[in-house]
Amino acid sequence: MSRKIYIIGVGLIGGSFALEIKKIFPDSNIIGIDNSTENLDQAINLGIIDAIGSIEDITNPFMVLLAIPVKSIINTLPNVLDKSTQDTIVIDFGSTKNSICKSVVNHKNRSNFVAAHPIAGTEFSGPNAAHYGLFNTKNIIICEHQKSNDNIINTALEIFSKMKMIVSYMDSISHDKHIAYVSHLSHLSSFMLGKTVMDEEESEKNIFDMAGSGFESTVRLAKSSPKMWTDIFDDNKANVLKSLSDYINNLELIKDLIESNKFEELESQLKKTNYIKKILKGIN
Questions:
Q1: What's this model's pTM, rounded to 2 decimal places?
Q2: Are 140 and 194 within one domain?
Q3: What would the DSSP string read from start to end of the chain?
Q4: Which of 73, 167, 224, 226 is deepest in the core (most CB within 10 A)?
Protein backbone atom coordinates (compact mmCIF):
# COMPACT_ATOMS: atom_id res chain seq x y z
CA MET A 1 0.00 0.00 0.00
CA SER A 2 1.36 3.43 -0.95
CA ARG A 3 1.98 6.13 1.62
CA LYS A 4 -0.62 8.87 1.43
CA ILE A 5 1.04 12.26 1.66
CA TYR A 6 -1.20 15.31 1.63
CA ILE A 7 0.25 18.66 0.56
CA ILE A 8 -2.00 21.54 1.60
CA GLY A 9 -0.88 24.45 -0.56
CA VAL A 10 0.78 23.38 -3.81
CA GLY A 11 2.67 26.60 -4.56
CA LEU A 12 6.42 27.22 -4.49
CA ILE A 13 7.08 25.71 -1.04
CA GLY A 14 4.49 22.93 -1.03
CA GLY A 15 5.18 22.03 -4.64
CA SER A 16 8.94 21.89 -4.13
CA PHE A 17 8.47 19.74 -1.03
CA ALA A 18 6.22 17.39 -3.00
CA LEU A 19 8.87 16.97 -5.69
CA GLU A 20 11.51 16.15 -3.08
CA ILE A 21 9.34 13.84 -0.97
CA LYS A 22 8.47 11.75 -4.04
CA LYS A 23 12.17 10.97 -4.43
CA ILE A 24 12.51 10.06 -0.75
CA PHE A 25 9.37 7.89 -0.74
CA PRO A 26 8.91 6.61 -4.31
CA ASP A 27 5.90 4.52 -3.23
CA SER A 28 4.02 7.59 -2.01
CA ASN A 29 0.74 8.94 -3.37
CA ILE A 30 0.94 12.74 -3.30
CA ILE A 31 -2.48 14.34 -2.86
CA GLY A 32 -2.73 18.10 -3.35
CA ILE A 33 -5.17 20.36 -1.55
CA ASP A 34 -5.49 24.01 -2.49
CA ASN A 35 -8.16 26.72 -2.68
CA SER A 36 -6.94 27.53 -6.19
CA THR A 37 -8.18 25.12 -8.85
CA GLU A 38 -5.66 26.71 -11.20
CA ASN A 39 -2.82 25.75 -8.85
CA LEU A 40 -4.15 22.21 -8.56
CA ASP A 41 -4.49 21.83 -12.32
CA GLN A 42 -0.96 23.11 -12.84
CA ALA A 43 0.42 20.84 -10.12
CA ILE A 44 -1.22 17.81 -11.76
CA ASN A 45 0.01 18.76 -15.23
CA LEU A 46 3.54 19.34 -13.94
CA GLY A 47 3.59 15.99 -12.16
CA ILE A 48 4.02 17.63 -8.76
CA ILE A 49 1.01 15.81 -7.28
CA ASP A 50 -0.69 12.54 -8.18
CA ALA A 51 -4.24 13.45 -7.21
CA ILE A 52 -6.47 16.28 -6.00
CA GLY A 53 -8.25 16.12 -2.66
CA SER A 54 -9.79 18.19 0.12
CA ILE A 55 -9.39 18.51 3.88
CA GLU A 56 -12.51 16.39 4.32
CA ASP A 57 -10.94 13.62 2.20
CA ILE A 58 -7.92 13.13 4.47
CA THR A 59 -7.86 9.50 5.65
CA ASN A 60 -5.03 7.40 7.10
CA PRO A 61 -2.35 9.93 6.15
CA PHE A 62 1.32 9.09 6.45
CA MET A 63 2.15 12.77 6.30
CA VAL A 64 0.39 16.13 5.96
CA LEU A 65 2.30 19.30 5.07
CA LEU A 66 0.65 22.69 5.52
CA ALA A 67 2.31 25.23 3.21
CA ILE A 68 -0.38 27.91 3.21
CA PRO A 69 -0.70 31.43 4.69
CA VAL A 70 -0.33 31.68 8.46
CA LYS A 71 -3.98 32.37 9.29
CA SER A 72 -5.06 29.46 7.12
CA ILE A 73 -2.64 27.20 8.98
CA ILE A 74 -4.09 28.27 12.32
CA ASN A 75 -7.62 27.51 11.09
CA THR A 76 -6.74 24.25 9.35
CA LEU A 77 -4.18 22.60 11.63
CA PRO A 78 -6.57 21.45 14.39
CA ASN A 79 -8.79 19.80 11.78
CA VAL A 80 -5.79 18.04 10.24
CA LEU A 81 -4.68 16.76 13.64
CA ASP A 82 -8.23 15.47 14.22
CA LYS A 83 -7.77 13.26 11.17
CA SER A 84 -4.32 12.03 12.14
CA THR A 85 -3.50 8.47 13.10
CA GLN A 86 -1.02 7.61 15.84
CA ASP A 87 1.84 7.59 13.31
CA THR A 88 0.85 10.55 11.10
CA ILE A 89 3.48 13.26 10.68
CA VAL A 90 1.96 16.75 10.48
CA ILE A 91 4.32 19.56 9.52
CA ASP A 92 3.64 23.24 8.98
CA PHE A 93 5.93 25.58 7.06
CA GLY A 94 4.45 28.87 8.27
CA SER A 95 6.65 31.97 8.53
CA THR A 96 5.49 32.68 12.08
CA LYS A 97 5.33 30.05 14.77
CA ASN A 98 3.93 31.24 18.11
CA SER A 99 0.27 31.62 17.11
CA ILE A 100 0.39 28.35 15.20
CA CYS A 101 1.85 26.46 18.16
CA LYS A 102 -0.67 28.03 20.54
CA SER A 103 -3.58 26.98 18.29
CA VAL A 104 -2.93 23.28 19.05
CA VAL A 105 -1.26 23.46 22.45
CA ASN A 106 -4.01 21.36 24.05
CA HIS A 107 -4.87 19.17 21.09
CA LYS A 108 -4.89 15.45 21.86
CA ASN A 109 -2.65 14.78 18.86
CA ARG A 110 -0.22 17.65 19.50
CA SER A 111 2.68 15.18 19.61
CA ASN A 112 2.10 14.38 15.90
CA PHE A 113 2.89 17.98 14.97
CA VAL A 114 6.25 19.46 13.93
CA ALA A 115 6.34 23.27 13.83
CA ALA A 116 8.93 24.19 11.20
CA HIS A 117 10.02 27.17 9.13
CA PRO A 118 12.31 26.60 6.15
CA ILE A 119 14.25 29.73 5.22
CA ALA A 120 13.93 28.85 1.57
CA GLY A 121 11.44 31.05 -0.21
CA THR A 122 11.89 33.13 -3.35
CA GLU A 123 9.95 36.06 -4.77
CA PHE A 124 8.10 33.70 -7.09
CA SER A 125 4.93 31.78 -6.29
CA GLY A 126 2.69 29.04 -7.63
CA PRO A 127 3.37 25.49 -8.83
CA ASN A 128 5.33 26.76 -11.84
CA ALA A 129 7.94 28.13 -9.43
CA ALA A 130 8.36 24.79 -7.62
CA HIS A 131 11.62 22.95 -8.27
CA TYR A 132 14.02 20.35 -6.96
CA GLY A 133 16.77 21.69 -4.73
CA LEU A 134 14.85 24.62 -3.25
CA PHE A 135 15.69 23.41 0.27
CA ASN A 136 19.28 22.37 -0.46
CA THR A 137 21.64 23.81 2.24
CA LYS A 138 18.82 26.05 3.51
CA ASN A 139 18.21 26.49 7.22
CA ILE A 140 15.04 25.08 8.73
CA ILE A 141 13.99 26.22 12.20
CA ILE A 142 12.02 23.79 14.35
CA CYS A 143 10.07 25.17 17.29
CA GLU A 144 8.87 23.29 20.38
CA HIS A 145 10.46 20.05 19.16
CA GLN A 146 10.23 18.64 22.67
CA LYS A 147 6.43 18.56 22.30
CA SER A 148 6.63 16.26 19.27
CA ASN A 149 6.67 12.47 19.60
CA ASP A 150 10.22 11.09 19.29
CA ASN A 151 9.36 8.90 16.31
CA ILE A 152 7.59 11.78 14.59
CA ILE A 153 10.39 14.28 15.10
CA ASN A 154 13.06 11.75 14.11
CA THR A 155 11.27 10.93 10.86
CA ALA A 156 10.89 14.65 10.11
CA LEU A 157 14.60 15.20 10.80
CA GLU A 158 15.50 12.31 8.50
CA ILE A 159 13.41 13.87 5.72
CA PHE A 160 14.97 17.30 6.23
CA SER A 161 18.43 15.71 6.21
CA LYS A 162 17.76 13.93 2.91
CA MET A 163 16.67 17.28 1.49
CA LYS A 164 20.04 18.61 2.73
CA MET A 165 18.50 21.20 5.01
CA ILE A 166 20.36 22.57 8.03
CA VAL A 167 18.29 22.15 11.20
CA SER A 168 18.25 24.58 14.11
CA TYR A 169 15.96 24.84 17.13
CA MET A 170 14.27 27.82 18.72
CA ASP A 171 11.30 28.58 20.94
CA SER A 172 8.35 30.03 19.04
CA ILE A 173 8.42 33.44 20.76
CA SER A 174 12.11 34.00 19.99
CA HIS A 175 11.58 32.79 16.43
CA ASP A 176 8.88 35.36 15.75
CA LYS A 177 10.93 38.17 17.29
CA HIS A 178 14.10 37.46 15.33
CA ILE A 179 12.41 36.60 12.04
CA ALA A 180 10.63 39.97 12.14
CA TYR A 181 14.03 41.65 11.81
CA VAL A 182 15.81 39.37 9.34
CA SER A 183 12.87 38.50 7.09
CA HIS A 184 9.65 40.39 7.68
CA LEU A 185 11.29 43.83 7.82
CA SER A 186 13.23 43.20 4.60
CA HIS A 187 10.01 42.32 2.78
CA LEU A 188 8.26 45.41 4.11
CA SER A 189 11.23 47.56 3.08
CA SER A 190 11.21 46.05 -0.40
CA PHE A 191 7.49 46.66 -0.87
CA MET A 192 7.77 50.25 0.35
CA LEU A 193 10.82 51.06 -1.77
CA GLY A 194 8.89 49.85 -4.80
CA LYS A 195 5.88 51.93 -3.77
CA THR A 196 8.01 55.05 -3.16
CA VAL A 197 9.60 54.85 -6.59
CA MET A 198 6.29 54.19 -8.36
CA ASP A 199 4.63 57.06 -6.49
CA GLU A 200 7.36 59.44 -7.64
CA GLU A 201 7.89 58.24 -11.18
CA GLU A 202 5.05 59.12 -13.56
CA SER A 203 6.53 57.05 -16.37
CA GLU A 204 7.22 53.38 -15.83
CA LYS A 205 9.74 53.58 -18.68
CA ASN A 206 11.90 55.91 -16.57
CA ILE A 207 12.03 53.26 -13.86
CA PHE A 208 13.15 50.54 -16.24
CA ASP A 209 15.63 52.79 -18.05
CA MET A 210 17.33 54.03 -14.90
CA ALA A 211 17.02 51.01 -12.60
CA GLY A 212 20.31 49.26 -12.00
CA SER A 213 21.07 45.94 -10.40
CA GLY A 214 21.00 47.54 -6.92
CA PHE A 215 17.41 48.68 -7.31
CA GLU A 216 16.36 45.39 -8.87
CA SER A 217 17.88 43.29 -6.10
CA THR A 218 16.44 45.53 -3.37
CA VAL A 219 12.86 45.41 -4.69
CA ARG A 220 13.04 41.72 -5.67
CA LEU A 221 11.04 40.74 -2.59
CA ALA A 222 8.20 43.09 -3.59
CA LYS A 223 7.26 40.47 -6.19
CA SER A 224 6.18 38.17 -3.34
CA SER A 225 2.58 37.22 -2.57
CA PRO A 226 0.73 40.20 -0.98
CA LYS A 227 -1.81 37.85 0.63
CA MET A 228 0.84 35.72 2.29
CA TRP A 229 2.78 38.70 3.59
CA THR A 230 -0.29 40.56 4.84
CA ASP A 231 -1.10 37.47 6.92
CA ILE A 232 2.45 37.41 8.28
CA PHE A 233 2.48 41.12 9.18
CA ASP A 234 -0.89 40.69 10.91
CA ASP A 235 0.06 37.60 12.87
CA ASN A 236 3.46 38.96 13.93
CA LYS A 237 2.21 42.52 14.38
CA ALA A 238 3.97 43.42 17.64
CA ASN A 239 7.39 42.22 16.48
CA VAL A 240 6.98 43.75 13.01
CA LEU A 241 6.03 47.12 14.52
CA LYS A 242 9.08 47.02 16.83
CA SER A 243 11.43 46.21 13.96
CA LEU A 244 9.76 48.84 11.78
CA SER A 245 10.16 51.50 14.49
CA ASP A 246 13.86 50.68 14.84
CA TYR A 247 14.25 50.87 11.06
CA ILE A 248 12.43 54.22 10.86
CA ASN A 249 14.65 55.59 13.65
CA ASN A 250 17.73 54.65 11.64
CA LEU A 251 16.30 56.23 8.50
CA GLU A 252 15.57 59.41 10.47
CA LEU A 253 19.15 59.39 11.75
CA ILE A 254 20.54 59.21 8.23
CA LYS A 255 18.11 61.87 7.05
CA ASP A 256 19.22 64.20 9.87
CA LEU A 257 22.90 63.65 9.10
CA ILE A 258 22.39 64.51 5.43
CA GLU A 259 20.27 67.57 6.26
CA SER A 260 22.94 68.77 8.72
CA ASN A 261 25.78 68.19 6.25
CA LYS A 262 27.40 65.73 8.70
CA PHE A 263 28.83 63.57 6.00
CA GLU A 264 31.83 62.36 7.99
CA GLU A 265 29.47 60.96 10.60
CA LEU A 266 27.31 59.56 7.80
CA GLU A 267 30.33 57.73 6.41
CA SER A 268 31.11 56.44 9.89
CA GLN A 269 27.59 55.04 10.22
CA LEU A 270 27.86 53.38 6.80
CA LYS A 271 31.23 51.87 7.71
CA LYS A 272 29.77 50.38 10.88
CA THR A 273 26.93 48.88 8.87
CA ASN A 274 29.42 47.58 6.31
CA TYR A 275 30.41 44.97 8.91
CA ILE A 276 27.29 43.08 7.77
CA LYS A 277 29.49 41.72 4.95
CA LYS A 278 31.52 39.67 7.42
CA ILE A 279 28.40 38.42 9.20
CA LEU A 280 26.75 37.30 5.99
CA LYS A 281 29.98 35.73 4.72
CA GLY A 282 30.09 33.66 7.91
CA ILE A 283 26.48 32.54 7.40
CA ASN A 284 27.02 31.62 3.76
A1: 0.87
A2: no
A3: ---EEEEE--SHHHHHHHHHHHHH-TT-EEEEE-S-HHHHHHHHHTTS-SEE--GGG--S-SEEEE-S-HHHHHHHHHHHHHT--TT-EEEE--S--HHHHHHTTT-TTGGGEEEEEES---S--SGGG--TTTTTT-EEEEESGGGS-HHHHHHHHHHHHHTTPEEEEE-HHHHHHHHIIIIIHHHHHHHHHHHHHHHH-S-HHHHHHH--HHHHHHSGGGGS-HHHHHHHHHHTHHHHHHHHHHHHHHHHHHHHHHHTT-HHHHHHHHHHHTTHHHHHHHH-
A4: 73
